[in-house]
Amino acid sequence: MNLPIGKLAKIGVALSLLLLALTLLACTSADEGQQAEPFTIGVMESLTGPGETYGTVASQAKQLAADEINATGGIDGRPLEFVVEDSKCAAQDAIAAYNKLTRADGMKIILGPSCSGAMLAVAPLAEADGVILFSGLASNPDIANAGDYIFRTQISDVQVGIVTGNALWEDGIRTLATITETTDYAEGVRRTSVAQFEMHGGQVVAAERYQSDTIDFRVHLTKLFQSNPDAIHIAPQSEFSAGSIMKQARELGYTGPIYAETVSVGTTALEIAGEAATGVKAITADLDPDNEKAQQVLADFRDRYDYVTLPWHLGSAYDDIYIAAECLRQTGDDRDADGFRDCLYEITWSGAIGENYSFDANGEVVGLTRVVVQVLPVADRTVDRKYVVVGPAP
Known about the structure:
Largest sheet: 7 strands, mixed
Order of helices and strands: HEHEHEHEEHEHEHEHEHEHHHEEEEE
Radius of gyration: 26 Å
Number of strands: 15
Low-confidence stretches: 1-34
Strand order of the largest sheet: 7-6-8-9-10-14-15
Structural class: alpha/beta
Shape: globular
Number of helices: 12
Mean pLDDT: 92
Helix content: 40-55%
């Protein structure tokens, strides 16, 4: 069949328009696919090992924050995704996790790890590779000098030590016995606390250390009590050992004051210790009850996971995701570690753990402080209130 030339021309135009439309549709689909490409960053937490309780709560808080961000459109239309590895609160495992994230997965931005020993082990590798390490939990003082790509929202144990030493002296403690887990975090707490206490004129009359797999502390504690100290100071890595030490100390008949740090007032530690923890004083960071964002985060976390432990650690991990999202928004590239680093140096943030905090030239958080808390009797403890703040950092 022969068609008139005019009709053929019209068909040709129609086909051209159809091809143009299909081309535009393909381009639009490609653009939309490009816009939907996720930002992917690494996460390292101690999901097992001595730091399991706070590593898990940190990982869950990060996922909560990421899900909130994605539910409201992501980061400029792009979802945020994690590649998660277990650093196990151990140096060698952290190095293995880091190598997996960087060598196999190509990550240039890693949030974590949880524990100071893991952070100190991995930091030289990250610094050499130009990879961001951004931790919400690791607190050893030496992290401050770890490099230009190393940041944290956790407050350095330098401040923990100063506050602990001051609190001991102000409470009339003049002789002290210490029991410390042999990890970078616990040793950092002990070292800085003792230095401040001795600066005032206090004396450490006995000191015991234990390995992370220890479950019976009675021999260690008995040696401490023989020195008849005014108080004992405990520096554990895990909530399990913290609770066990407090419980066993009271079972041995010790009735004197006990001073501790953040891990010792976690939910698991206090459940293990029971009434033995009543009256224990700890130097920790605490979420402000008047901070609406902090209280909303706690409520949302509890609704989702049906528990809460170490609220400040939870809030710190949560804030890290929103800070990371802002820096990804600014750089537009999850492989731009230098741009992410520069963003962190310049940012001022308000979130669950405080208002208007920032980072100094060493990547140390500025504008956050710790407080002195005292554990309540079991009958007075609630899901939201296991201790009371007895004073600001002295």
